[in-house]
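Hi D.,

Good news: the full-assembly prediction came through. Inputs first.
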Amino acid sequence: MTLSLSDSTWYPIASSDDLPFRHVYQGQLLGRELAVWRADDGNVNVWENRCLHRGVRLSIGINEGGELKCQYHGWRYANRSAGCTYIPAHPADAPARRIQNRTYPVREAFGLVWSAANDDQAFQPFPGAETGDWFPLRPIPVNAAPEDVLAGLIGLAPDDQPADILPGLAVRLGHAHYFVQPVDSGRAVIRGVLAGQPEDAIAILRHYNETLTKLRDRLERAARKKPAPAPLEPAFEKVSVDLATMPDIAIPRGNTTTVVVKRKWTSADGVIGFELAPREGHLPTFQPGAHIDLHLPNGLIRQYSITNGPGDLLSYIIGVKAESASKGGSKILVESVREGDLLSISEPRNNFPLRRDAVRTVLIAGGIGITPLLSMARFLDKSRLPYELHYFTRVGEQVAFRADLESLHGKVILHTGLARTEIGQTISQALGEWSHAQHVYVCGPSAMLESVRVTAATQGWPEESIHFEYFKNDKVIDDSSTFEVELARSAMTLQIPAGKTIMEVMREAGLSVPSSCEQGACGTCLTGVIEGECDHQDVYLNDSEKRANTAILTCVSRAKSARLVLDI
Amino acid sequence: MITLYDFELSGNCYKLRLLMSILRLRYDIIPVDFFPGRQHKSDWFLKLNPFGQLPVLKDDDLVLSDSGAILAYLAKKYDETGQWFPNDPAITAEILRWHAIADDITSTASAARLALGFDYDFDVPKAQAGAHRIFRLMDEHLWFGEREGRDWLCTPPHPTTADIACFPYVMLSEEGGIGRQDYPALRRWSDRVRRIPGFTIMSGIFPAGRALEQA
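Then the structure:
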């Protein structure tokens, strides 16, 4: 028998006990090294043991509970998806490309962790597995060919009670089931389980350990006399060069996922919580501060921040403000959408990325603005990074996600019913004087955002340390200008008259232009600018991005120059 | 005043830096260029330690050598809790037993590392096989320890100098081509050592994630 790299059999690769809290286990199956770790939610991850960045083993990395952090340059990967959530060399950017480590199928059952080289076979319990209560023995690694190890185990059977050979390098000897994990062509691990929990567990474990250790020594003596088999040579996919480079400001994508409304509840007075779950598997990787576009039954698209913590991908939880004047978007969610309904969501996008290299992080939320900041607090909390979360509401009953906030370990301060002047003073105190590596993140009503921006600026906070996200564009759009737009890649020149947006004219000319909010808030229609001076009227780009004059939101912004050349 | 004659990449010197960090002791470092300078064989160093081995530790006028001996000295003199080298005769014997194993780890795992990384002329396959033999026994000891409620190499419910003495060259074994994939209990023990309050790192020995009680 020769081992095959594409063998799709499920083999045990670890004991459940091998994965204690915040540990990373080093395993191997069919020549492929594995980093195996249990997240705080209990989920077991089996990943290729290699950071996508520089190839360092992830098994020497740090299990942060919801993310695994590479020891070398600190890239973080999310529980379940293995998607990259943070690149310390680019602390101010969200790693928006699909940087995702190789994962292997996993099942935890009968005291063991099982995996397979590929997804070709569904997991099947060994015969009789479901009826028993299984007690795992100490695994015994053996430097011998897996088939020789199986033969050795079969040889342990007494003459009057022959071994019962099971599929997948396994054998039953009386009460004991043994599975041979094919580590490589010349290496194996004997993983045994006993039916039932023995009374004197330690004595039983020692007994089997002694038997199997003697078998191991015999097998290894025999193996040393044979020529060593050539190790399996798995091919590792090369990491593309541009993985190490960061994308530009944002890349709109058209993909949507169907989700089920798993739960709908009143989180607080005026705030409805929605739990959106995939129909199978898990949802895509997101970073703190990210939002999804939710496609509503009436055709509208609205953005909602994900409130989840790191590696929490079984469902997204969003908060929706019940009474909302916004074009009927939230209204239909609150009034018509029910548990069990199907909705479409976009992949998460992040215009509000969280740096994780701050010595102090101040999070300021007003009302429903708590949603992205709750996610940020959860990420900082898991990594034990210092933060203070200030949450302003008019009355205590409006405090959403209260239980979630109470379970945080950091400083969470609720400010209720403050008058406008008091809010200003509180913000001023919360910010304090700026010093190196301090960052503030704010989300809430426009007045609060302005207050934080102005206060922070007067207290010495530089622009790049103040982070915010607008829900909507309250500015009055001045669409009185007329200008010419040249579309460099479409080889088209369009005249934009007063009263029409660049986007409208482009669509009239037959171009397909992705958009979402169409009010300069979401960034979906962001387009590169090659030449000309923009008249930015959006609330999506920050001041320095606006000054850079390299990108424009075609739904609201216009040109100051007579001509604008766009990269479209 | 404590002075450590130190080579930064030496696991034996690191044992002392580690215990002194845990005990929050202040000390001076005099760097000794073990490689490539071979200063541990220079006249001035041989006057401190005629055996020509690092580390050497000076405490005022007292000059000590051998990492295991110095660990015992530091624990007995400066550890007010008495946990790192308890006075109990049976536990003392247990600790010294592991100090001897630590020396065996040095002569195998560290020898392989010196051969592969520092140009030493040692029998690498023999050194690697010797290290694997010790690691197997340590893994078995620690695996049953986990089942019997013992987290450390010795019986007390807390780490001792035995853990400090064995830790560095276990952690640096991969630099000698000795993988630890087959020793899951040894790997978990190394997480526990790295979570001891006051733990410090060296080149090649990284921090672990947070422990249960801190999370």
